[in-house]
Each structure stands twice: as structure tokens, then as C-alpha cells.
Amino acid sequence: MINSLFIINNSSDVFMEKHWKSVVHRSVCDYFFDAQKKCVSKSDIPPVIATPHNYLITVYRNNLYFVAVTTSEVPPLFVIEFLHRVIDIFDDYFGDCNESLIKEHSVVVYELLDEMLDNGYPLATESNILKELIRPPTIFRTIANTVTGKSNVSATLPSGQLSNVPWRRAGVKYTNNEAYFDAIEEIDAIIDKSGSVVSAEIQGYIDCCIKLSGMPDLSLSFINPRLFDDVSFHPCVRYRRWESERVLSFVPPDGNFRLMSYHIGAQNIVSIPIYVRHHISFKEIGGGRMELQIGPKQTMGKTLENVSLEITMPKTVLNVNLNTSQGKYSFDPVTKLLVWEVGRVEPGKVPHVKGTINLQSGAPLPDSNPTILVKFTINQLAISGLKVNRLDMYGEKYKPFKGVKYLTKAGNFQVRT
Amino acid sequence: MNVSTASASMASEYQMQRDAMIGSNTETVDYGGNYASNDYRMSNSSSGFGNQMDSASIILPSSPNAKRDDLRSMLESSKDGQKLEAMKRLISMIAKGRPSSDTQAREMFPHVVKNVVTKNAELKKLVYLYLMRYAEQEQDLALLSISSFQRSLKDPNPLIRASALRVLTSIRVPIIAPIMLIAIRDCSNDMSPYVRKTAAHSIPKLYHLDPDLKEEIITIIERLLQDKTSLVLGSAVAAFEEVCRDRLELIHPHYRKFVSLMADFDEWGQVVLLNMLLRYARTQFVDPNRSNQETLSDVSNLVLLDPDHRSLLRNSKPLLQSRNSSVVMAVVQLYLYLAPYSEINSLIVKPLIRLLHTRQEIQIIVLTNIASLTSTKSENQNEQNDQGDNADQNEQNEENNFEDMDYYNPRKLNLKSLFEPYMKSFFIKARDSTQVKILKLRILTNLSNSSNIPLILREFQAYIQNYQGDMEFVSATIQAIGRCASRIKEIAPVCLHGLISLLSNRNEAIVSQSIIVIRTQIINREHEEKENELTNSHDSSVSCRTHSIVTLIVKQITKLMDKIKTPNAKATIIWILAEFCDKNLQALQASPNILRIMAKSFCTQSDLVKLQTMNLATKLFLTTHPANENGLNKNFNIFDEKCRERIKLLVNYIFNLAKYDLNYDVRDRGRFYKQLLVNCDVDNGLTLAKRILMAPKANLKIDNVSESNNLDCPSKFRMGTLSHFLNKRVPGYEELPNFPEIQPDPSVRLGFGGEEVSGPAKYHRIDNLVNL
Which CATH superfamily is domain A178-183+200-268+384-404 in? Predict the structure, then answer.
């Protein structure tokens, strides 16, 4: 299905390649570069490019292009999902996924790619299995290996590979047994000029960090599971239990993973925890004026934190002079990006900013007003009202420590002016 | 034993000779090398290749030669650590893939191949990686390693057996195909499921190496399909798909096992399995939508289906909740092409909407699919029906037509209405890339109807207001407004008003784009009007409305004349005036003045504008010609003798200017028009000129399609495929088979279907424990 993979950096350098079938010459990437030249921005590259003999399927992440080559019909999502999985695994192994790390660990990367795909068909993509086959590089292990002559490659078959729970390795042992759940909700919203909500949706995730010994069988229930419009699960979750009882029942993988993601939108009303009042105008004489004011709204007693506003100004704006009642602002004259870092909004306070905009003289007035992108986080609150009811563990004797954390943040939260 | 050492020494001898040759070659290229190496090259080449001097004995630091010798001595060393280090260097050279490092790495083949016997796991793995990369190019030497693989295949450790099989089958050397076949056959009977899985993976490799072995290979696949672990089955199905996808009878006995084990497959296996089952079901079950009324069971409101058909739908449903987008897409496809329409509901829409919140690449693919799901083209359906009726006439086309009809099948049910509640999910966000924005526009256009159009239009207006940094998108938005108008007749006036209000925008590009869209709109409307007149002549209200719209447009555009600079837009304005000056009073009134303005600046205008100015001049002349009087509407007789005389002079002036224009197109056109006009006073010259110049316009629909680049046409390819995304046939694309007319024998699936399977049973047991 996948013949070859090329990894390309931002300066059009093909610095890594791997072939699972016959070698496809790297000149095939020229078609990719041609397509890249036609794009305005780096991320705008079409995900599928047809060349005379091959098809290139591209994923852009972390400033790197992962270009898979295929010669025949294949579901494009299959390849894209796989490429993202590859990047996830690199992230997991090296802590990040960038050019220098991939170059530094090129042997491990090559081994991993070989283990993940056989003859173009995915073989092992579970991080737990891979980690047993090829141990992630750590400084300690590198030293230990040179002294003892041991290797990073396992000589035995991973235990998980054969079991019914391939995502979990056998013989896990912890002195402190802990299970942490983070319920993170991102609000995607469009607020129009007059302040009314055009659309608002919540994209939520439950991320887990589970360090439990043995083979624990967990079940997690919510107080209000009817809230979810749509959900997707890690393969460990038993679908039937969810269908019948709305309980998440699963044998967890070891370590960090995303248990579930959910979507609340369209049908349910989403509350918007922040309001933005704005006035931006451009005039021939004296440039323009702008005034922004923000404040909390429907926050259920929690405070807004890490608030920041980003505005990409029109090209003719030279500079801005602002007075802020709170926080700092910065303006980049090249990218025309104005950022106002507000920070924490104390209850009762209404941070505002006011000032003038300098326009390039002689140039025509900007035609359109910019869009304001708002960022914020609210701790200890899931804006949808989601609440975890209880977590039960079966199959093991010990008493684990269980913790749940809620966090709401702005996803793609924009205000049109 | 003996043989292998002998061959190894042979290999090293061979390599030495080759080294001498390559050494001289590389150095001719390497100008950066030091003088010593240069001298050496000369002496070496002068004494010929038969030179006794061993190239390895000369040590040249920092030259590629030295590096190679270094590597070689490390590979030949007795310590595993050294070998490992050398292999790591080689592998990172391969990974980099640069031509220079590639050839260097390849030269080491004879030295690497000897290490295949090592006991060190990591070293072995690296040697295997190396062999897989270069065995194809170094076929003869690669054969030396075969015996070692054969030994490893008997190893008690399943990991070693599996990896030996993997490498053995990855060596693309045709001679060893029989050895591979034996190895795969043995491994397909292995105790360890992991080895059996590897055997399944190896099957396609062998098949591509030697397709003549197909029959033998199919028997192995048959055995693997009998397996009971989902781990093996996923790969077995993949092998089946690659080698013998048409042999669906092999699936019969295992169908029920596949359906019940579906959830236990890994994500990638699920995708392959779902695709295979879809094809299977299309050949084994009858169309669930063929005779709905009769088969509706009254108990559960579910359409009565073959139990196996029903269980496939039921068991695949939970997979819509998979985290893997390609699994979700495969289930959506399965439902679209297999489920009764009554059961296709928001069930399949919600997961697709969820995928819009994932990675951008996934978004683009999903949006493309939604766009073609929501698009309906009425003409297409009419065409189909027509073709369906005529199917007997030409058998060649018949097949295609039926196929086409099948592809549109899902669209007979109203998928659009399913997506409508989620319309807001397609609103454009500031960070969307241009591709995503344009796809979302397409979907919004597709979803527009008379009730939601105010909301959509307001959105479109906001886009035009807010996103002027991206002009490509803004013009697409304006075109989208036009498309909304032509899609739904009732909302066309609303859209046109929206477009007209854009004419007063400050941005010139927006204004020009709007004018161009308006032009196509009014031409289309005129046509509808004529059709209407033909069908029901008494309904004159519609034509009145169009006229008032034209009046409005004319009023707006005449005001714009001075502001607009873009030649294309300017030409369009003049064209609109010319087109309507015999039909619309406002246009007629405005034309002389515009013509006067244009005459003043005629010489400085672009050719396009000049041509249109002449067009306006001619038409105005013909409309105001005195011989016209009885033929024309009385209202249009607004100019007195003096005015007409002035218009005539103006027209003459323009043609005189055109006569001496630089561009010969303009000169030509001027002469042509002038001849036509001169003859107006003779006989029925006027009627002839009018028949030439003022003939009714042809329908613009064809134009429209090419302009919008098949945006409105649903793709004829299967959802979720590469061909669908690219809208062209990709090698390996396969049409879905049609449902059979008569239900095939369902008892074929009885086979082994009854037996219990190990995988999910264990699951249930845990579930029960929890319940207690």
C-alpha cells in the first residue's frame, strides 16, 4: 500500500528515506516541490499529488513534510492516519519530532519504520509493542549499553503482540499505582461583529496517564453521559458496554494515551465564557483608532487565565500605539501580528486597551477589518458541564490513587470585527 | 559449513578487485581529495587493474576511500561492538539516501552479508535491514545469505523465525521463489500467530515476484483464512485482497467469523476487512432498497434483510466510534452502499462531522467526500432516467448507465437534509487553509435552500468583509453566491441583490468578480424566462421581476463606470448595457451617455473594452434606427430626431477610431460592423443586421460547468478512494459490483460459521465479571 516514505524539511531537503518495496528514486519528490511552489503557505500543500506513475500522499506536521509514495488505489485516509501515527510514535520515542532528532536517531528511526510497515502494510503501530521491540534511546541506556554490550533491540517477541490486549505489555509493575484523567475541552466559536454567536462547538478529550501494575480492568462512568453528540475511542474501550450502559470499560495501555475524544456542538447550546468588545476603525487622517475590552461571562465562578488576543492587521498598518490597563502588547511590523497578552483576568476587573494605528501614508485604506483570535484557559472547569462519576478497578487487588482534572481552553475562538 | 566459508572468501576476493576499480572511479570524481590520492590514482591506472597492490593497504585519512576501509575493517572485526557501530553507520547512510552515500553503502555488501549469521539481536536486525535494501541490486551475493535464513526459520524463538521469513521474502530475487513458497507454507502452519501473520504478509511479496505460483499461493491463503486469531486474519484478508480478490467463494465459510470478530481486528485490518466485506455483500445479498414496501417488518421498523446482511451492518456500526478516520470512512461507505435508505441517518453524519476537528489532511479528504455526498445535480438524474429508458438501444452504454445509476443510488435518499443540521460546522474559520475554505464553500453552496439562504448569505458577506487577505477565496465566495442563485430558483433574487450590494465595495477585485458573476446570472435568468413563457405564457410576474433586477443592476453599474479599472469588468458592464438596450428602458437611457464617455477615452482602453464598446455602438444604433419604429415597443421610442442624429455621429466616430487601431482584431471588427450598419438603410438590411447581431444567446450551462470546474458534479468514483479524491481513475481502482437480481444461496455461509471463536469470548467473560 505504501511503497516509500520521504521526510522533507522546510528548506526542501530530503533528509530521510525508507523503501518497503522496490526503491522509488527520490526524484519523485520533484513533483512535490512543484506543487509546493504553487502554494501560498507551507501548510496549504494538497494532501494527494498525482504524478505520472506514483501518487504522493503528504502530511505536514512540526515543520516537516512526510511524503508517502503509492502506486495504486488505496484509501487516502489510511495512509494519512498511518503517517500521523508514525509521527506520534517518533514524538513518543524522542520527546519531540524534528529534523535534528530524526537525524540523530536515524538508526532507531529506520528500525521503527521497518517494524511499523511490512511490504507497505502496517504491522505494529502500538507504541507499547514497539517499545518492547526497540527500546527508546535514553542517555542512561546508551551508556549502559556501551558498558555491558547489551542492545536496544529485543530478542524476544513482545508479550502484548499475541494477547487480546495488544496495546498493553505484560508484567507491568509500579510501587505507586496511579491513574490520572484529564478532561480537556476546547471551544471552537465564531462570534460576529455584533457579539452574537454564529457557531460554537466543543471538542473534548479525555487523556490518561495510567501507571497501574498487572492487568487492571477499569470502568469509568460519567454523571451526564447524554451530553456527548459524538464520541471516538481508543481501541481498548469496549464498544458494547458503552452502547448499552454508557460506561467506559477498558484494560488500559501503560502510560499516556488518549482514551476518548468527543464532540458537542450543533444541537446543544455551548456557553461562551468570555466577551470581547471591540472598535477598530481606519481613517485617512490620523491613521486609525482601536479599542478592545474583554471580560468574563458565564464562567461559573472560575477565573479566566492565560488570556491573549491575536490580531493580524492589514498590510498597510505600520505600527500601533496602545495603552493597556493590564498585560503587555507586541506588534510585529513584518507579519503585522498584534498580540495582547492579558494574563489572568481577576474577578471584577475589565482589562481594556486603547490607542492609535499608524497607517502607511498614501496607501488606500484597508478594506476589511481583521479577525480577533482569542486564547484562554479555565482550570477546574469543563465548560460543557461534563463530570466524571466514578472509576472502578477490577482484576487487581491493590488500591490505586485516582485523580481527575478538568480544563477548558479556547480552540479556534474568533471574533469578527 | 564448507560451502559458506568458501563462498565468503570468494566474495572477499571479488570485492577486492571491484574495490580497485571503483576506487579509481570515485577519485576521478573527487577533486577535493588530497594530492597523495591523486598520485596514487595515476600510478594505479597506469599499471592497470591487474595491479597486485592492495588498495586497502593505502591509508588516506578523511578520503572516502579511507572511510570505506575503516568500515570494512570494522565489519570484518571479531568484536560485535565494532560490527554494530559499522552497521549503524551504514544504516544511517541508507536512511539519508543521498546518491553518494548510497553507492558507498552498497559497496559494503559482501562484508555485510557475512554477518548474517551473528547471534547478536541488534546486529542481526541491522544486517537484515541492509539486506532488504540492497539484495535486489546484488542478487548473486544475496543468495549467499539464504542458507542462514533457512536455518533461522527453524529457530525456537518465534521472533527470529518471523524476521527471517520477512527478510527472505523481501529479497526480490526471482530464482528463490520456490524456496520462499516452501518457507511461507511452513510458516503458515507455525505455532505462533505472529509467525503466521508474517507469513500472510509475505504472500503478496511472493505473488508479485512470481505470479505463476498463484494457485499454490491461494491454497496458503485459504489455510490462513481458517485461522482463529484476529491478528492473523487481518493480514490474511490483506493477502486475499492483493492476490485473488475475485475468488469470493473462499470467504463463504468464514463470513460469519469475520463479522463477529470485526471489532477485535487491529485498525488497519478493519479497513481492509470492511472493504472486502462490502464487495462480498454486494455480490451475495439483494439490494435492500429494491422493494421496500413489501419487506418492511412491522415489529421494529427495520427493513427485513438476510440475517447475514443485517449482522454485518449491526457489527460494523460500533466501528464508527473508532479513533482511526479511515476505519470510520470505511464504515460510512459500507452503510452508504449496503444499508436500506431508511437506516442511513445522522448515524453516519456525526462521525464525519467529528473528523472535521482532526488533522488538516484528514479534514480535506473528509470535506471532499462530504462535498460529493451533498451535491445533487438535477440534470444528472434526468439524464440517467433518459438513458435508463433507452438502455435497450445501445448495449455498449448500457453497462455504464447502470453503474452510474448505482453510484447515484445513495443520493436518491436525501443525504443533503442529513447534513443540513450541521451546516454551522462548515462555516469558515480564520485559520483554515485555502483548500479547506474552498471545500467548505462548496458544501455550504450544496446545502443552501430557501430557508437557510439568509444565514448562508450573511456568512458569505462576512467572508468577503473579513478575509480580503485571501483574494482567491473571496472570489470563490462571490462565485458561490452565483452558484446558490442558479441552484435554487426562488432564492436567485436574494442572491442577486447580495451581489449588487457588493458592487459598491471599495475593493475593485471584488467588484469586478461580482459583475462577472452577475452577467452569467442574468443570462441564465433570461433563458428560464423564455422557457417559462413557452410553458405557461400567462405568468408574466417572473419576467417583470427579472426586468426590475436588470434595471437595478444597470443603475448600479452605470454609476461604477468611472471607478472600475479592470478591463474585464469594464467590458462586462458595457456588454450588459448592449445586451439589454433593446429590452430594458434603463439600459437604453444610460447607453448613449456611456458610449459618449467611452468614445472620449477609446484610444487608451484595452482591446477587450474597445470590442465591447463597438458592440454597444452597433446595438444602440440598431435599436434607435428609425426604420425600427413599428417593430419596437413604444416605450422604447424615447429619443427624438436630434438625439438619434447625435448617436449616429458618435457611432461613426467610434468606427473611425477603430479603423486606425493598432490591433487588427479591433480594426477587423470595426469594418465588419460598419458594413452591416451601412446596409441598414437598404431593403431589409436592418432585419438582417439584427438577425446577425441580436440573436438570442445560447444557454450558458455548458460554460458554467467548465467555469466551475466540475464543482457541482458528484464524482463518479466510490467514496473514500484515491480515485474519488483525484477525480480520475487510479490503477487498481475497482467498481463496486451490482447487487444480484436474485438472492444467491445463503446456505454457503453455513460452513464453519457455527463454531465459537476464541477472541471475543474472552472479552465477554471479563464483561461478565465486572457485572457481577
Answer: Mu homology domain, subdomain B (2.60.40.1170)
